[in-house]
Amino acid sequence: AQRVTQPEKLLSVFKGAPVELKCNYSYSGSPELFWYVQYSRQRLQLLLRHISRESIKGFTADLNKGETSFHLKKPFAQEEDSAMYYCALNLAQGGSEKLVFGKGTKLTVNP
Amino acid sequence: DTGVSQDPRHKITKRGQNVTFRCDPISEHNRLYWYRQTLGQGPEFLTYFQNEAQLEKSRLLSDRFSAERPKGSFSTLEIQRTEQGDSAMYLCASSLDRGQGNEKLFFGSGTQLSVL
Predict the structure, then answer these.
(1) What is the mean pLDDT of residues A71-83?
(2) What is the pLDDT of residue B100?
(3) What's the CA gap between A56 and A37, in Å, rounded?
(4) Distance between CA B53 and CA B32 in Å, rounded?
(5) pLDDT digits (tens, 9 = 90+) for B44-94
(6) Rounded-to-integer distance, Cα A107 and Cα A47, Å
């Protein structure tokens, strides 16, 4: 079955500490993975996608096919990083975005 | 605001009533998606349109649900004979498909449905 697992419902760190939000997936094909973020009272928005291999707001995520993981990392967390983070897997072929989302991890960065 | 617009923001209805939601995508976007999100869960895919054509529907979309995008611009999602299990946030998203993949989804603020 195709699914995305985010094992941590809540994650709390102090400002300046490293943070890692875990994501594991189950998919028989070649995975296309994303991280979405939702800040308080804002819309869900794309943070980054694995094929772009980019760093957004200091966050990076590396696809590990052996471990079927796509963990999100930031070396020094900031208070403004506090948000809900969703890992998502694209099931669609042909370029559309039929996404399966994990249940999300609520990150709180304390001062 | 030139982003994805959804109306209404909140809808409270009684079980058995019909409801209709509207989504206005970003104007040049040719793809439009509907997702549903319940408390404590991530969004779940319902359906998507390429211009006016509805190309895929999730098995989550029962016969009571119907979505349209008549002119390839705005879309409506109708739920007939609502049930308490339909209570959720209904999210619309749009994107521009240039035939190269890597499209970026832009989400609306959602319509929160409560069925009493």
Answers:
(1) 97
(2) 65
(3) 11
(4) 10
(5) 999 999 999 998 888 888 899 999 999 889 999 999 999 999 999 999 999
(6) 14
Confidence of residue A96 (pLDDT cuts 50, 70, 90): low
DSSP label at A47? E
Q: Which amino acid is at B31?
A: R
Which tokens sit at B93?
């998203």
Which of B3, B97, B104 shows the shortest C-beta gap to A46? B104
Relative to beta strand A72-74, strand A60-61 is: antiparallel
Among residues 9-38 of chain A, which lie with CB inside 8 Å of chain B? none
The token pair at A95 is 């370029």
Cis peptide before B8 (omega within 30 of 0): yes
The two tokens of residue A28 are 């028989």
Q: Is there a contact between B41 and A100 if contact means CB atoms under 8 Å apart?
A: no
Interchain CB contact of B91 with A (< 8 Å)? yes
B100 in contact with A, Cβ within 8 Å: yes
Any B CB within 8 A of A70 CB: no
In angstroms, the CA B17 to CA B81 distance is: 5
Residues of chain B numbered 44-83 and touching chain A (CB < 8 Å): 44-45, 48, 50, 55-56
Please give the biggest Cα pair distance in chain B. 44
pLDDT for residue A51: 79
A108 alpha-carbon distance from chain centroid? 15
